[in-house]
User: What shape does this take?
Amino acid sequence: MKQYFLLSILISLSTICLKAQVPDDALRTAWFTFNGSARNMAIGGVMGSLGGDISAAHVNPAGLGLFKTKEFIFSPGFHLNKNDFKFRGTDSASSKNNINYGTIGFVIGLPQNPNYSKWTSTAFSLSINQLANYNNNIQFKGFNNFSSFSEQYLEELIRDGADMTAAERNYIFGSSLAFRTYLVDTLADALGNVIGFQSLVPISTGINQEYSENTRGGLHEIALGFAGNMEDKLYVGATVDVPISSYQREFTYTEKDATNITNNDFNYFTYTEKSKSFGIGIGAKLGFIYKPQDRWRLGFAFHTPQLMVFKDQIRSWMITDTEGYAGVKQESSDNLNSGDAGTRKYYLITPWRAIVSASYVFREVSDVRKQRAFISADIEYVNYRGARFSRVNENDYTAKSYYKLVNSEVKDYYKGNFNIRLGGELKFNTFMFRLGGAFYGSPYKERALKANRILATGGIGYRNNGFFIDLAYAHSFNKDVVFPYRLNDKPNTFAEQAGSRGSIMLTFGAKF
Assistant: This one.
């Protein structure tokens, strides 16, 4: 497999390399299935040309132009998360359920006097939506006689030409922990001269590897939207968006000797890491919806890249048992960093995306209460490889070189791809029945990395006397990959994920 990561070149500069940035950090803000109101979820997230729902502010803001009254909605939800993994021939499973929410906010539609304006109506909205839910539990294990987590530390030390002093002090969130606990030690020639470093993990006889990751948080978006309606024929809109990312990760990785040998200088090691990341930014969405004739609606929306600033914190621990070699040793980054967590600040530009859409409305009339059904489809393109990291401090030229390398890896690792959404609704007086589906293509360039997300959705709704309530369920079939570690000098091993996620959403709304 293609070698992806050459990011440890500057790892000794702890001011920027507390932990090497990896492309996964960029994907977290880009590859997600759409979340919104229960109505929008029930029809597969298709909102590029449909409009008339507050979720349009987060897809195609032109859809706000269909509002001519005032409306408030609230959308609580719940996630059911199940993961299945296959890692080096061993199957594992994990699960985690949690509270979720969809679009919350209000829309104010204002009809205009046709005698004084060519605009039939205008609309303003303020809403918040959870774009991605980071709450998850990932666990897998397997036997490996090909590579070890410890080899990434060897690569760092050898590539940097580190001496014993540097190995002991300069890599306080990784290699120095391994060196101080004798997971990695010096390698000497026959005369006792230090000529390099070695790992004490007996890879050739095999090790049992265990990976456990618990994550929390989400990607949220506040949207301030504006839209106009020209003669119920052309709708244009725009939003100013404020993305907010909150991410916490507790990660534990263990390797154990797979043999019963008690004098081979290795029993086990465990690496633990706790990190948290907070980011906030700004972006925009632009769009229009056009009715070429009754019943048809065509839409286009463009989501600009969002500029986000992040602050990360990290702490790490390691305990190693090398039996008769050095016994049980443990070390932590706190001991090497005056008891403080490591911090890092950086900018991230998220990928842009574009959506083209078409809807067919049965019995398209100005009185939406008399409309009987619709079918709608979105095709969305996301430029995943367009994510870019950059330094916060413009005078830090070393950081500039570092992030240039990271961005090169993002371009090599990802590609742009399409997402397709389809949904429809049948209306019987005050009750509605909805179905939908979606396919989200893989963001990975490497074909060996199999990944996609397939959604099946459905729901019901009730509307009467200015009040409405909607219920939706979306079931996502997920394929993805998880790398327990990444090496530069040999092919990387990874776990194949084939799990599912169920999302329940309930929306309450009222016109006022």
User: Anything to note?
Assistant: The helical segments are 23-27, 38-42, 151-160, 164-169, 175-180, 333-336, 397-413.
